[in-house]
Write a sequence for this structure.
């Protein structure tokens, strides 16, 4: 793994992998959206509104996945001071925040016709809102220090502390009596959802994941290049 | 066709969901790509200014064709 963790080598590999990720993402979205709208059946209770699920569920999964990735990268950055780890965590935060926002917004658009309300202070909804605030707090804290290293350290600690929210989100539907439905895909005994709905959902979920990898590569490349720019600027100021 | 867009009466909820997701994800992607391009342009310009001789001494500033 250390071979790929060298920033210079990483830059080269990332530039080569990026167009492949772009292609795979576009292809998966084309297939996933086609299935979501044309092959997946309407729900027997929810009718056509169930199609919101193909955006809502992958966005919510990715909101949590990105946070977990950010927390792991932060831990690696804190413990081993790896140069790529902090960069990866920083690059992930806005993407994870966007996914979490989309999960909340599409959930609201789904909740209105099905539950009769845009929002309830239900355990699942509230813990997802806290996840969004954790992302925002992480980004704000990172930018709040003049010393970049201190900003990275403080925000990494916040990311780790906030990770306790992840199991709370996952199990909120079991621990509390919520309006939100319990898990029907990732649960003991396998998915309880029909394959005609499960397949488009899984393809959309993978499309969201490859989108994340694609954008992550772009953002890490940007961060690493910005670091080089900073070093050159410093050298320019100090006259070499 | 209009039946498809009405989504069994749920069109007002389904389409905004997809529209918002597309908007957020496309905007995030485009800003990230543009940001990368402009940072790379700045880097190339600075590298030329600071002097290729100095910059090349450092492995960090090579374009990545080392073995």
């Amino acid at each position: 793994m250390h071979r790929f963790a060298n920033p210079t080598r990483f830059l080269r590999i990332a530039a080569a992998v990026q167009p492949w990720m772009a292609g795979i993402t576009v292809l998966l979205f084309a297939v996933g959206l086609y299935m979501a709208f044309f092959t997946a059946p309407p729900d027997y209770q929810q009718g056509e509104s169930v199609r919101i699920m193909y955006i809502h569920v992958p966005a919510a999964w990715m909101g949590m996945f990105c946070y977990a990735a950010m927390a792991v990268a932060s831990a690696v950055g804190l413990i081993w001071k790896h140069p790529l780890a902090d960069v990866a965590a920083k690059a992930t935060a806005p993407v994870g925040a966007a996914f979490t926002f989309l999960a909340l917004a599409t959930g609201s658009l789904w909740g209105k016709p099905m539950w009769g309300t845009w929002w309830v202070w239900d355990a699942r909804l509230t813990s997802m809102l806290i996840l969004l605030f954790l992302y925002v707090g992480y980004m704000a804290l990172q930018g709040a220090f003049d010393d970049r290293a201190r900003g990275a350290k403080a925000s990494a600690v916040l990311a780790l502390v906030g990770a306790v929210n992840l199991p709370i989100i996952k199990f909120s539907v079991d621990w509390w009596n919520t309006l939100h439905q319990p898990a029907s895909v990732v649960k003991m005994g396998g998915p309880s959802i029909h394959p005609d709905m499960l397949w488009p959902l899984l393809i959309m979920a993978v499309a969201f994941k490859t989108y994340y990898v694609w954008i992550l590569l772009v953002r890490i490349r940007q961060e690493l290049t910005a670091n080089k720019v900073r070093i050159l600027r410093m050298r320019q100021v100090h006259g070499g | 066709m209009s039946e498809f867009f009405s989504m069994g009466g749920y069109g007002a909820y389904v389409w905004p969901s997809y529209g918002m997701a597309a908007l957020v994800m496309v905007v995030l992607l485009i800003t990230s790509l543009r940001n990368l391009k402009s940072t790379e342009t700045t880097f190339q310009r600075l590298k030329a200014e600071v002097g290729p001789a100095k910059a090349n001494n450092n492995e960090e500033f090579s374009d990545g064709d080392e073995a």
Observations:
- Chain A has a mean pLDDT of 93.
- The radius of gyration of chain A is 20 Å.
- Helices of chain A lie at 2-5, 7-39, 53-80, 83-115, 123-143, 148-162, 165-175, 195-237.
- Chain A touches chain B at residues 7-9, 11-12, 37, 42, 47-49, 51-52, 55-56, 59, 94-95, 98, 101-102, 105-106, 109-110, 112-113, 211, 214-215, 218-219, 221-222, 225-226, 228-229, 231-233, 235-236, 240 (CB under 8 Å).
